[in-house]
Amino acid sequence: MSEQEYMIQMKDVNKWYGDFHVLKDINLNVKKGERIVICGPSGSGKSTTIRCMNRLEAFQEGNITIGKLELTEDVKRIQEVRRHVGMVFQHFNLFPHLSILENLILSPTWVRGTPRKEAIKTAMHFLDRVKIADQADKYPNQLSGGQQQRVAIARCLCMNPEIMLFDEPTSALDPEMIGEVLDVMSELADDGITMVCVTHEMGFAKKVADRVIFMDAGQIVEENTPHEFFDNPQSDRLKMFLEQILDH
Amino acid sequence: MATFERLETRQAPANTKGPIHWAKENLFSSVLSSILTLFSLYLMYITLPPLLDWMIFDATWSGTKEEIVNEGARWIFIAEKFNLFVYGFYPEELYWRPNLALVIFVVYVIGFRRIDNTKVRAFIILSFPVITYLLVAGGFGLEHVPTDKWGGLLLTIIVASVGIIASFPIGIIFALGRQSHMPIIRTISVIYIEFIRGVPLITLLFMSSVILPLFFPEGMEFDKLLRALIGITLFQAAYIAEVVRGGLQAIPTGQYEAADSLGLTYWKKMGLVILPQALKISIPNIVGSFISLFKDTTLILIIGLFDILAMVTLTNSDTSWLGFETEGYVFVTMIYWVICFSMSKYAKAIATKYNTER
Fold it and tell me: Rounded to two decimals, what is the model's pTM?
């Protein structure tokens, strides 16, 4: 496979917080349309890894290429990359001073220069897709956590991204609302968008992922297809992790 | 198998409502609060009647100085000097100009809350200083009135509004500068803010009126009022910067990250996402700072400008009206109170309107 067809390439990425070595020699290639799930214990560097992909976190060594663009220190380049990469956060991070609809059209109108009318049309389309078109005029704090997270997904989709990053999208939700968010994510996956998802939802990983990656102590310990990953773990560390999360 | 049955919603018990319950809850909830309530009532009983007698019932409202027989306040003094208090030495035949500016101001303030169009709002904010300046100072066919003729309440309001309007954007810039990742910009902002906040306003006024002209070339003269305005604006900007910084720090990092991840540039991120939220949180503190600026404007007296308080002091030396200080100062007190209280109420209304965190 030629290099051009990778959407995300991370080559020997190393990152330190002061003296603390958070990411150690991360090598990861994601093909177009591939769906990756990253899991691992807390503090393993999984969130940091995907936050490096749109340069919310700086890294000190190695290089990351998104599509054909290499991430550099250049602000213009970083903004260019971010236009192609959508990110969904654990705490939704909707803008509380704007209505749902305004949240969705903010970036298309101000970053892409889309006319307002057209942006509203696109926004309503995606709100409809995440099944909350009827809430368009409400404010984020009037919505439930699950609804807010679906709005956050729709907000990313309005920018027509090629890659979607999910940083523990269901960790802050009440148990009753996790399902509705995972459903939306599964539908997205069926549409063939490139997805990288940090999550503890193993059912989702089994059902949706093309590849599951296990990280510990800033390293990629193991990566495999979901089937092999769960049924035939290679390393002792992963065996222990799976026992921990599946046995209760 | 147990079935789930919804219970009817019921009224709250009757003894949790009504004025008697309110008094019990708020005035007589404990022995100490009962004592304090009774003591407050007693204080009101001994202070209010004489005050009301002096201000209203025994007061002299009309007639001439020679006819005064009542014990109470002699408000005819205020009536006599009213124009001086309000307009200073502004030419009498031109009073309509500041009056018109005031009418425009009131219309704008009322309109501002009703209109939601950003462009119209920007026009209101930008056009108001220009219109007011043309009306008060003259130009475009209107007769020129030099600034040393401006005085009284007119001057107080002009100094306060210019200070408020000009310091606001400057303060925001310095607040952003203080948060900047660029060391030079941050250092400049910190030095500016900390220097200004470490110096009393009176010193700044002296500096801008006495020391500043020394730096200008011979013969170049700056208007005295303009120099005072520069001093006040620089002073206020540092305080606004600190208040806005407090608001900026209250915005969670997630908001910055979400704006970044959507590809917004720094200025768009700040202007569309961060500042609207930060300013909204800061409204009470910003207005508090403006209110204290409004009261601080009395200090311009020391560089020879006569605001409303200075006008009262001045009229007291009028030999035919000696001994009327009390009436004058009570009048000024009420004016200050009414204006400051309105500002605070207006701010509350704005804060409620923009509160989307319901």
Answer: 0.83
